[in-house]
User: Fold YqeG family HAD IIIA-type phosphatase from Staphylococcus felis.
Amino acid sequence: MIKRLFLPNQYVKSIYEIDFDELQKRRIKGVITDLDNTLVGWDEAEPTPKVKNWFKALDEKGIQVTVVSNNNEKRVKSFCQSLNVDYIFKARKPLGKSLRKASSQMGLNHDEVVVIGDQMLTDVFGGNRNGLYTIMVVPVKNSDGFATKCNRLIERRLLNYFKRKGFIKWEE
Assistant:
């Protein structure tokens, strides 16, 4: 049960290690990505040139993107406007409503969508509960807000458990 809910389908160091061709082989047509500590640090207001290129590469592959964040509208909107991508703020992940809404807005079925995020208890759990392919990335920054720090304690234990069992091969 723990494995089914919390183990990501992939675990990578950063968004830049995600193979778009492999996603296309899996018939993935849409990406739901977290914002803070997934794309940029939680305290970075704008997308970096490298992040902009990542979004451009997805677009060139014909893969749609929606940013789904638990953060507030001002933060998410200002970040996404320069990228010209759809977004959902105050998403209340891991609840699935925002993930289903994002899939629906892209006109895609759950088996055509991947969720990318840095948190096991929000992004991976929410994606897995909704039958979506999940990719977990190492957080861009080591600092977090209070609630996230609590989540990270639980997450660290789950990651260590999955590594001991051989479910996750990559070492930090």
Q: What stands out?
A: The chain is about 40% helix and 15% strand. The longest helix spans residues 146-164.
